[in-house]
Fold this sequence. Notes:
This protein is an alpha+beta fold. 27% of the residues lie in helices and 13% in strands. The strands form 2 sheets. It has a two-stranded antiparallel ribbon with strand order 1-2. The longest helix is centred in the middle third of the chain and has 15 residues.
Amino acid sequence: PANDHMSLADYRVRVENGELELWSDSVPRVEIESHKVTATDIVVTTTDTVRHSDILGAWLESRSPLILCGPPGSGKTMTLTSVLQSVQGVVLASLNFSSRTTPEIIMKTFAQYCIYVRKGKDIVLEPVESLGASSW
Length: 136
């Protein structure tokens, strides 16, 4: 890193040329209209949200499982929801768990979005046809 106060985590590698770029240089300037300030679905873009979104997007492209860990209110759900909504062909089925969540509620939600398909010895869930053939 060029600055003694910066760490390697403050940089990303540009795929096109292998050059290092500050994550902060990737934060777009956004103006939020006054009537939208109280909206709960607005993501205020910061260096962290850009970094997290980029990393999550790449991880999701690999279609590998992941678990997001962090304290309540740290932005796990907000960031993941924002990234998933920006990915073409991804349909988001949100499940919120509480002490009242039952297996029946979970299975009912899956039934709205998925069908069970046998693949060899395994049974897997796949998107229903009505969501489109390329949905994930």
